[in-house]
Amino acid sequence: MSRAILPGATIGMLGSGQLGRMFAIAARRLGYRVHVFSPDSDSPTGHVADLEVQANYDDLDAVAAFAQQVDVVSFEFENVHAATIDAVERFAPVHPAGRVLYTAQQRVREKTFLRSAGIPVSPFRIIQTREDLEQVTEEELPGVLKTAAWGYDGKGQVKVESLADLESAWNEIDNAEAVLERFVHFELELSVVAARGHDGELAFYGPMENRHHNHILDVSVTPFNLAPAVAEEAREIARKIMTELDVIGVLCVEFFLANDGKLLVNELAPRPHNSGHLTVDAHLSCQFEQQVRTICGLPLGSAQQKRPAAMVNLLGDLWQDGEPNWSAALAESNLKMHLYGKREARVGRKMGHMTVLADTPEEAVERALAARRSLTARG
Ligand code: AMP
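Above: inputs. Below: predicted complex with adenosine monophosphate.
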């Protein structure tokens, strides 16, 4: 095992949104210094970092200079080009490694890896040319056509009902390289957040049940009503992915629980995940602390959950009629409020989240939703 990077050292973070912010808070609590590389100034991570370096990811000289000032580097979103990671890796270790990012950031590579590792996924076909499109048969539909690169929160996805729709669906995504996957009739969506250290030690959070609204995560809750054998299978699949990809760091596996009871992996995020935000308040060590510990080569913390918990996202939509009524939500005494310090509230933009701990998961969801409604209740 390589030597641990101990408190007092400097960690570099590529990306400056809320995931970087919560990472930086966890790192500073453990006594590390944090430098953030950010395309923007005054960023959510910059607010809590020791240093914010403002430059573009394709400015490889700036990336190299950044890497020379830190002891280890991680990232908070997957749309970082390989060349940027290569430039960092010349001067500082990056965790998870560039090859993990390379696999997880592009759907064709991600799904090909999952299928070849024997992980259950919805059947899919790779679409690179018009000929590939012509091979599609009726049995493969309905399906979802997803661009291979740079998709998130349902962007770059088109539902395809019949062969007649295929051509226009592909045009809609600019005839880009894509994956056509079978539409999954699912009971619910769930995720497992996994952490893996330098010596292969593993910790798991969840499964969390995730409810989406307009393709954006809306509510996460754990535990929830799921057969223990299925929950164990989800963690086992996460274990297999972490081991096969030799991940050092944190990675989220998103699943469908199909109507026939089968678990299917939807996608991977090689970083802490929105569905793991509730771990900050509900677990002994949160996903961000595990990210710090794993990338620095320290032992993992306990992932034990303290109480049932629910998280609700706060999108910019809540600001449409003025500043939300923070006092109303904070009157819920079991609630923990997290705001990301973003100055501009746009529709669909993640501005913060709230987590409620309660005696039961149902009560946690109910109280979290009530608190969110109170933010915009008038009169
Ligand atoms: P993704 O960006 O792949 O996570 O997809 C965003 C959301 O679209 C998912 O959380 C699902 O709600 C829905 N979705 C994606 N793929 C499928 C599929 N193959 N079948 C049914 N729904 C899907």
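Residues 228-244 form the longest helix (17 residues).
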